[in-house]
Amino acid sequence: MDNTDTYLLNFEGYYLVRFTANTDLLKNLDDFEIRDNDVFIVTYPKSGTVWAQQILSSIYFEGHRNRTEMVETLDRVPFLEYNLLIPLQIIYIYRNPKNILVSYFHFSNMMAGLQAAEDIEDFMKMFFDGKVTGSLWFDHIRGWYEHRHDFNILSMMYEEMKKDLRSSVLKISSFLERQLNEEDVEAVMKQATFQNTKFDPQENYEQILKHDLGRTDEGSFLCKGTIGDWKHHLTVEQNERFDRIFQRKMKDFPLKFIWDLNEE
User: Fold this and answer.
1) Which residues cross the membrane (predicted)?
2) Taking 70 as the threshold, does the pLDDT of residue 206 lie above it?
3) Pairing state between β 8-11 and 14-17
4) Total domain count for the chain?
5) In the beta sheet, which residues pair with residue 155?
6) Does residue 233 sit within a domain?
7) Adjacent-strand bridge partners of 156
């Protein structure tokens, strides 16, 4: 285990946040008991994790979608930041990596427990070197795709979920074999809207950021996740360089990506 980095803990080749990593827990994950009905949401950081937690909680718990149970989403769907366990059901959500880069840059600069970057150029180097929590994005998405037949896995594109939330809710509920009527679907969709999630303390983790993770400013934990927002942050040269690296590493990768709001 590498203990030389101030911000990152290298556990068996995977980078975790040193500030929050529990090494005793990590060493004993082999003994973690997985139940037959457990469902894992798997994402690379800044790929819609909290949003997916909210959708899943609303599908499973009537009290969550109609607000009769005041249970925080984190308690219903806790984080487990290391990919060692083999659950029976996995929902894997992947996102346009340019938007991940931009969102991750802002998030890292907001949190004292993460290494801040001087500018987005500096963070691009960290991102492409895999020296961030979650390690290299290319390895993450390729690894899960190449082992897709080893699991009962549903792959969802973040951008498609944003464009057609209803279909996504129905697809997820079908995968989980949860029967929802029309009223239930509408309630799940309402709970999953940006406005609802952003201002609901049960779902936006603002207090956790402030007290547990060392928040450094008043920025919001949840951003709108607008498709194509990277265009407002990357220069032409940075975008072209990103494209060259992406094409080199992903030229034979079959999953499609949506880079712009108007793309189909």
Assistant:
1) none
2) no
3) antiparallel
4) 1
5) 92
6) yes
7) 93
- Whether residue 124 is contained in a domain is answered as yes
Closest to 232 in 3D by CA, of 118, 106, 129? 106
**Which residue shows structure tokens 């008991």?**
33
Q: Are 58 and 188 in contact (CB under 8 A)?
A: yes
State pTM to two decimals: 0.84
| Bridge partners of residue 14, in order along the sequence | 11
Are the CB atoms for 97 and 227 separated by under 8 Å? Answer: no
In the chain, the N- to C-terminal Cα span, in Å, equals: 44
Residue range of the domain that includes 245:
35-250
Q: Decide if 261 is inside a domain.
A: no
Residue 24 lies in a domain: no
Tokens at residue 196, please?
Answer: 């609802």
- Per-residue pLDDT tens for 52-101? 988 998 898 876 566 555 556 555 555 454 444 555 799 999 999 999 99
> Which residues touch 250 (CB under 8 Å, ≥6 apart)?
138
Q: What is the 3-state secondary structure (H, E, C) of the chain?
A: CECCCCCEEEECCEEEECCCCCHHHHHCHHHCCCCCCCEEEEECCCCCHHHHHHHHHHHHCHHHHCCCCCCCHHHHCCCCCCCCCCCCEEEEEECCHHHHHHHHHHHHHHECCCCCCCCHHHHHHHHHHCCCCCCCHHHHHHHHHHCHHHCCEEEEEHHHHHHCHHHHHHHHHHHCCCCCCHHHHHHHHHHCCHHHHHHCHHHHCHHHHHHCCCECCCCCCCCCCCCCHHHHCCCHHHHHHHHHHHHHHHCCCCCCCCCCCCCC
Axis-axis angle for helices 182-191, 165-175 (nearest 10):
110
CA separation, residue 45 to residues 40, 68, 69, 95, 185 (Å): 15, 30, 28, 10, 27
| CATH number of the domain where residue 122 is located | 3.40.50.300
Which residue's structure tokens are 């180097």? Answer: 125
